[in-house]
Specification:
250 residues, alpha/beta, 7-stranded parallel β-sheet, two-stranded parallel sheet, 50% helix, globular, NAD(P)-bd_dom_sf, oxidoreductase
């Protein structure tokens, strides 16, 4: 009987991350480490997962998401016992574009939590995975990173950095057995987008998005649009002539 998979989720209170964890536990017992900034919220997620998979080991770890030394220390601690099979980097926050335009501190904070922090965690996990010549590193970006738009360009710029970082890691690790997976969800029905739902936006069920991620990663995909229709939608958006694009209120 094979050993349980070792799975680490950074930003485990994310609704997408929580549903990914449920799907992984359905595949079999695992040793799951949930990393969050809020210990109580992360523990609530862990308690639910323990009920769903009593055979699994589920640990909770509170960690800093911005300090490079703390991030490195966290990853060192997790990788010291042995290789990680899956690392999912899922944390982020959806800022109000208008507020970021008025407050540079908010703008900086949004860029740090959505771009710099995921990139640092990815870099920290990449080294041990490369040394072990195994593992799957999953970064959650966004369709917002495919083209800058006036409605959310601060968030989009951050996710654009995640896209480029993931591409660079894929190139770096192409000759290894490490898989780097970039996920680009469309608008998803989570607590982070509750205000959008109130405005009538069409949001994908979080269960469907998580299923796309887990299935795509299992198949070895390098880029996952979730749901898949966003691959075509964003291809069109990326290729719209500027003169047409600039007339659009998106």
């Amino acid at each position: 009987m094979s050993d349980p998979k070792r799975i680490v989720i950074v930003g485990a209170t994310s609704a997408i991350a929580e549903h990914c964890a449920r799907l992984w536990l359905q595949q079999g017992p695992a040793h799951l480490t949930l990393i969050g900034r809020d210990a109580q919220r992360t523990e609530r997620v862990a308690a639910d997962l323990r009920v769903r998979s009593a055979q699994s080991t589920i640990d909770v770890l509170t960690a800093d998401f911005l300090d490079p030394e703390a991030i490195q220390a966290t990853v060192n601690r997790l990788t010291a016992p042995g290789p990680i099979d899956i690392a999912l980097i899922a944390h982020g926050a959806l800022p109000e574009q208008a507020e970021c335009q008025k407050d540079l501190k908010l703008c900086r904070d949004a860029l740090e939590v959505n771009a710099i922090s995921p990139a640092l965690y990815a870099e920290a996990f990449a080294g041990p995975m490369q040394a072990a010549d195994r593992g799957t590193l999953i970064l959650i970006g966004s369709v917002a990173g495919d083209r800058g738009r006036k409605s959310n360009y601060v968030y989009g710029a951050a996710k654009g950095l995640v896209t480029r970082y993931a591409q660079g890691l894929q190139h770096r690790l192409a000759a290894t057995r490490v898989k780097v997976v970039l996920v680009k969800p469309g608008p998803t029905d989570t607590p982070m987008t509750a205000h959008l739902k109130g405005q009538g936006a069409k949001l994908a069920p979080v269960e469907d998005v998580a299923r796309c991620i887990v299935r795509g990663a299992d198949k070895g995909k390098t880029v996952i649009y979730a749901p898949g229709k966003w691959a075509l939608i964003m291809w069109v958006v990326r290729h719209l002539p500027r003169v047409v694009f600039n007339r659009m209120g998106i």
